[in-house]
Amino acid sequence: MARPERRTVRDIRRGNRAVLLHTLYFSGPTSRNDLTARTGLSAATVSTMTAGLLAENIVVEAGQVESDGGRPRVLLRVNPEYGFAVGVDMAETHVRVGLFDLEMTERAKVDYVLRPARHDPELVARHILSGVEVVLSDAGVSPEQVLGIGVGVPGIVEPGPDGVIHAKTFGWDGVPLGALLRRGTSLPLYVDNGAKTLGQAELWFGSGRGASEAVIVLLGVGVGATIVADGTTFRGVSSSAGEWGHTKIVADGRPCRCGGRGCLEAYVGIEAILDRAGVASQGDWEEDLDRLLASESPVIQETVSYLGVGLANLVNLINPEKIVIGGWVGARLGERLLPGIRRATAANSLAEPYAATSIVLGRLGPDAVALGAATLVLEEFLNAPQVARITAAG
To answer: Fewer Cβ atoms within 10 Å of its own Cβ: the N or the C terminal residue of the chain?
Structure first.
């Protein structure tokens, strides 16, 4: 029989502090009275903790509002310049490094081009580390002000400090990207699957906000998904849940980059779309897709049908209240063809779960993966602001 967990007074205070900071962050400028009502903490606890957060400059005053018959109430908010987060989008064709304040406003950005056929781990690590230096310099931010670096990557990321990545499409099998990066930085590092970082960004700040049961899908060169259950990302036993692009939609179908056959990605990933259309791309995938969309090629309607099957599998299996379509391919298809995507999904779904699901486009654009990677740092800060700050400064 397991022993009951013992919580110290310090643990309780730390938990209360995290609850307070989460509420303040996501509620926007809020009075102490409203914080008391929303968190369930006592007025005395809220008063003591907000005083501490103000003294540390984590929280700042944000004006006043009139109260019912009493003095105006002071509004509080998280100080957006208390610290900064670096978010990295490592994709097939580029490494994008962005610097964000605590409101997740982008302060600086730099891109490095990658050749799709070559993803040398040492080169990728150098690009990321160089990008961190560039964005800090461009924004006039010192390393001591940075709370950490979040990195969104293709493939499966093993839990653990070394950020070990398995990405067959990159030719990576057990690449310790986190360990490679730690050779060049002492900042805290957080590495996760890029579809999951996009999913967290859309869940916190985009089209998924407010949904407790949702799926956020990424359509680009690769295809993946974030599954949200009871407001939390579902990861599975080895943190590989959400490999939606490698679910099978055609038995013994087209070969996929993962080595399998008949995967959804082999029909709706950009390379698969262009290959089925007979387009000999020179790597300008976005322009190639735009031309294909403008030509009204029958391959586009076929792609919508395949995508509808893939989304219907999510509807029938997971029964989400919302499906958010993200990624640059998803954005281009959805902007023109969302009604058709919904019809194709409905045609392949059970009526009851489909009726309970809304299918919408993501709102965060091409920087969503990098923004989501920065939220990995933000999440740690909100849960343990003192620890995050000390580690970053050390």
So the answer is: N
Q: Rounded to whole angstroms, how far apart are CA atoms 127 and 317? A: 39
User: Does residue 100 lie in a domain region?
Assistant: yes
Residues 319 and 375 both lie in one domain: no
Q: What is the mean pLDDT of residues 225-235?
A: 93
Burial (CB count <10 Å: 0-12, 13-18, 19+), residue 261: middle
Q: Which amino acid is at 15?
A: G
Q: Pick the last residue of a domain from 52, 78, 104.
A: 78
Confidence band for 119, pLDDT divided at 50, 70 and 90: confident
> How many domains are contained in the chain?
3
Domain range for 154: 84-197+369-383
Are 106 and 74 within one domain?
A: no
Domain stops at, among 35, 50, 78:
78
- Of 150, 24, 154, 26, give the one whose Cα is nearest residue 76: 24
Contact between 265 and 247 under an 8 Å Cβ cutoff? The reply is: no
pTM for this predicted structure? 0.89
Residues 242 and 342 in one domain: yes
| C-beta neighbour count of 358 within 10 angstroms | 13
Which residue reads 């959805």 in tokens?
334
Does 91 share its domain with 37?
no
**In this predicted model, what pLDDT tens digit does every residue of 45-75 receive, in sequence order?**
999 999 999 999 999 998 877 766 667 889 9
What is the band of 38 on the pLDDT scale with cuts at 50, 70, 90?
very high
* Mean of the per-residue pLDDT values of the chain: 91
* Residue 205 forms part of a structural domain: no
